[in-house]
Design brief:
Layout: H1 8-14, E1 17-23, H2 25-37, H3 45-59, H4 68-100, H5 102-185, H6 191-205, H7 209-219, H8 228-253, H9 255-344, E2 355-361
Antiparallel strand pairs: 1-2
Helix pairs in contact: 2-3, 2-9, 3-4, 4-9, 5-6, 5-8, 5-9, 6-7, 7-8
Length: about 375
Amino acid sequence: MPLLKRPAAVAVATQPKVKQQKVDPLAEKCDAIASVLAEAQGYAEPTLQMLATSVKSCLMIKKEERHQVQNAVIEMISEVLSSIEAGHAEKVAAIQAKISDADAEKESREGEAEAAAKAQKDKAEAVTVAEATAEEAKEARLNAKFDHGQATTARKQIDTDLEQASEKKALALSAMTEYLAPLKEGAAESADASIKSLTDVAKKLGLEEQLVATVAVVLRKPVGERAAFDGVVIQQFDQQMNAQSEKFAQQLAKGEASKTEGDEKIQACQAKSEEAEKQRDLRQEELKAAKAALKEAVAAKKAADARVQDWGPEMEEAAANAATAEAVLVACKADLATFQELVDGVPNAVAAPALEVEEVVEPEGSAEA
């Protein structure tokens, strides 16, 4: 089927309409000034918005026709634009100063890096010393605690020995009175029971076993049948029993002095242990502080080294920024010149005419067509 030709009316309707629109150069300049105001620093945003919206209403009026409020606004705009120019100028000066001081900055950073390296080394050595000192203090504390424990144990042993001495002394005296004396005189109610009790006590007191066994045999004999040797055996046994009793009596007599000496030793060891623990804690705090200082020194050296490494890229960036900042400053000065031109006013005779540009407008119903 052959294609139908589009009707001429439809073809014309689908063509976009062209509408002529005038562009005012004066308005464009005012818009440019208004957009520049947004760059200002140190001013409240509502203030800058107010000034931006007031540019056309103030600058598109003939100079001689402006009233006092408009002139005041123009002065405020001038102040803001001057501050923008000053800011760009300061930025350019700062970048140029940085570039001019590049060699001194490099030398300064390298010096800081060397100082940081030395500080890190010193802090590391301080940590080593602090660790050794802390270990010595720890060992001294352990030794002091051990000595205190030994002194305490020895003091308890004194109490035990004195208690045993008191018991043995009483046991010896009781055995000599209740068993030995009646057996010597042959007046014991039960010789076997008394001899057994006596020999048991003798063994507890540590008498010679042979002597104890012999005296047991002798004391079973009637008094009249005992020979001279038997008397010697009984005498020796009696003497040893008395000697043991006297030994315990002397031990008890020295007991208070022994306890006092033991208590004083415990107190001395306790004081030494407390001081050692205090020193241990101090050394631990010193070690902790030394490690913290070393950590800071390591971080400082790392930062100093990074600053040395960043110097080259920073200088390259500064050079690029300098060119950009200078270009921005030049543009800013041009904006100020434009602003001053608008402030001074342009005579109507030489004012640039409005330009006409074509704006494409879609016809109504084009989508349907």
